[in-house]
């Protein structure tokens, strides 16, 4: 079984034996014996072929189908992505976490990977779907990346949809602050937000916003 640990903020080390899953091309070095193969259908090997195909279709249609590889072997496996900061999250049994696909770096075999419908974020790059990982086995760990040091918040809170990276608990509501000034170009630039109303959950954002939004103005 593999376990993840942070190395100098910008690198994740997977140590142990067996297998885990990572974004294609995440490896920067390793010590030991490893092989990797691209996952064609699904990371959830205990599912039927039909469910695996449906899971793949859902990821493709939702835009959350990031290329993933299955890494087999034993030793120490170093992973990074464009010098982004690394955060390792250990899930509780049965706990789920929503993660932006572009920020997902790796996860252990103790996690079930899929997508879930949010129904919000049409204006922002957040989209209406997000990647979903659920703890189903031993040592369920998820590795995420952020542009800059991650900001960890406890709910309830309101965040910019273009800065959010991941969260535990229920999905947020889509909050708007749109009025006639918005259409005259007098907006504050913070008209669309994600509102997390549950108590005691965790939201991680990054100090870097994705380029997005609907720019409507009269010059």
Automatic annotation (TrEMBL):
Signal peptide position in this chain? none
Under which name does UniProt file this protein?
Answer: Tryptophan RNA-binding attenuation protein
Per its UniProt record, what Pfam families does this chain match? AIM24 (PF01987)
InterPro entries listed in its UniProt record: AIM24, AIM24_sf, Trp_RNA-bd_attenuator-like_dom
User: Coiled-coil segments, which residues?
Assistant: none
